[in-house]
Specification:
single chain, about 300 residues, alpha+beta, 434 Repressor (Amino-terminal Domain), Beta-Lactamase, 2 domains, about 45% helix
């Protein structure tokens, strides 16, 4: 059976006599996240940027659902169901059309593709595994601080240079040794970050972009629940549904011993350990390189 939602297609036509060759791979959690995310982006849009009147009888900010549907070329009913988290099967072309209508950023567009099952999610891998050859790679980076995180951002390995940068990492209980948890709850990490408010928000949006399709994962649920209870700043940021992709660039740290460090931030994924990300910091100049050498000494 096609179910009660087969009668209206994405483009508004009658498909009640047809068949479908592809079942939706979206989980209930992914459908709910997609619905809430699209609604949040729709409400942030200024109708005037799309050539629509901003006045009239608008009772809420942003675009109306029927306006998004019209501009994306889908039926109003179908788009409403999409924002309600119903079990419908959006095609790649229609998700792309909705993304263009909502003027989503590349990171946001990738996020809705992942949620709707049209982009490969990051593999979970072995959540607690740290292969020996990966640890040896971190150690070989010498004065460049580096660590490895799992799909849920648990820190499972680091080199000596990273322990010099953040001495508390080894003392944190393994259950709390999660990058996002430490950013929002550890005062030492907060003082280490040059602009904690901006940096912590960046971490949050990148984390959400990565785990969006896996929001029902027990480790993710537990982490988000704990952070919502522990940090008002996290609660506010999580409620915004903002996402962003990682980009290499300079990061500034205020180390209590050697002072300011300007480091270039890189992420690598081992081909034979796709469930891990390696985060590497390299000196952005000779002054920082000298300070890293002092730390190592």
């Amino acid at each position: 059976m096609l179910g009660p939602f087969a009668a209206i297609s994405e483009r508004g036509g009658d498909t009640s006599t047809g068949t479908t060759t592809e079942r939706s791979t979206m989980t209930a959690t992914a459908r709910r996240e997609l619905a809430e995310f699209l609604g949040s982006r729709r409400r942030q849009l200024d109708p005037r940027t799309l050539g629509l009147p901003a006045g009239g009888n608008r009772r809420t900010p942003g675009l109306r659902r029927e306006e998004v549907a019209l501009l994306a070329g889908v039926s109003h009913t179908w788009y409403t169901w999409l924002e309600q988290g119903r079990d419908i099967r959006p095609s790649r072309s229609v998700i792309d059309a909705v993304a263009r209508t909502l003027t989503l950023s590349p990171a946001e567009h990738e996020y809705v593709l992942q949620l709707s099952g049209h982009a490969g999610a990051r593999p979970a891998g072995a959540a607690d595994a740290m292969p020996g050859h990966v640890q040896r790679l971190l150690d070989a980076l010498g004065p460049s601080p580096a660590y490895a995180i799992t799909a849920s951002w648990s820190i499972v390995g680091w080199n000596q240079a990273y322990e010099h940068l953040y001495p508390g990492v080894a003392a944190v209980p393994a259950a709390d040794r999660n990058l996002l948890w430490l950013v929002f709850t550890d005062p030492d990490v907060r003082s280490l970050l040059d602009d904690w408010t901006t940096d912590s928000r960046r971490f949050l949006t990148q984390f959400r972009a990565e785990v969006g399709p896996r929001l029902a994962d027990r480790r993710v649920v537990d982490l988000v629940t704990r952070l919502q209870a522990a940090s008002p700043h996290f609660r506010e940021g999580w409620a915004s549904h903002d996402v962003d992709r990682f980009s290499s660039g300079e990061r500034r740290f205020r180390h209590p011993v050697v002072g300011e460090l300007v480091l270039e931030h890189h992420q690598l994924t081992p081909a034979d350990a796709p469930g891990l990300h390696l985060v590497v910091y390299t000196a952005a100049g000779s002054e920082t390189a000298a300070r890293l050498s002092r730390l190592a000494a």
